[in-house]
Amino acid sequence: MSVSHSRRKFVQSAAAVAGASKLAAQQTGSVRGFDHVALPMQNTDAMLAFYRGLGFQVTENANACSVYIGDQMINFHRPAWWQSGTFTLRAPAAKPPCGDLCFVWDGTAAALKAMLDHAGARVIEGPVARQGGRKKAGSSVYVRDPDGNLLEFMIYS
To answer: Domain boundaries in the chain?
Structure first.
């Protein structure tokens, strides 16, 4: 084998390794979690009062109301927005109630009951033992918001 042929083969091999490394570097990363969830809403005033009663921060704009839970958010699209023919960045069949949301409760069952009572939420099931998204067992309480979305509050042991 000639020296120039050996060099060419080495350079081609090094280029292939560099290309594979570059591709692998571009593909690193993964989905870490949810940033926000978006749902249509029907009863704007009742929904905002309810979520404020749960202690959530609520902000409003012309098309949506944002409910903040720590650094996550639920965007509730106002009826005029999700019903308009111009708003297409949503699930086409989404109509209230279409949400089934689970929140982690960081407190006691008694404190959760007091908060739900304060918000006017009626418990429809629970507390019941459940396996949660954190791959641990917990206890859940279920209520519905004014639009009928199912809300689960999980207390991890």
So the answer is: 36-156
Q: Is 60 a catalytic residue?
A: no
The whole-angstrom separation of Cα 2 and Cα 134 is 61
Of 122, 120, 150, the C-alpha closest to 39 is 150
CATH architecture under which domain 36-156 falls: Roll (3.10)
Catalytic residue among 145, 152, 154, 155: 152
> What pLDDT, in 10s, does the model give residues 46-88?
999 999 999 999 999 999 999 999 889 999 999 999 999 898 8
Give bridge partners of residue 39 from the DSSP assignment.
76
Which amino acid appears at position 145 of this protein?
D
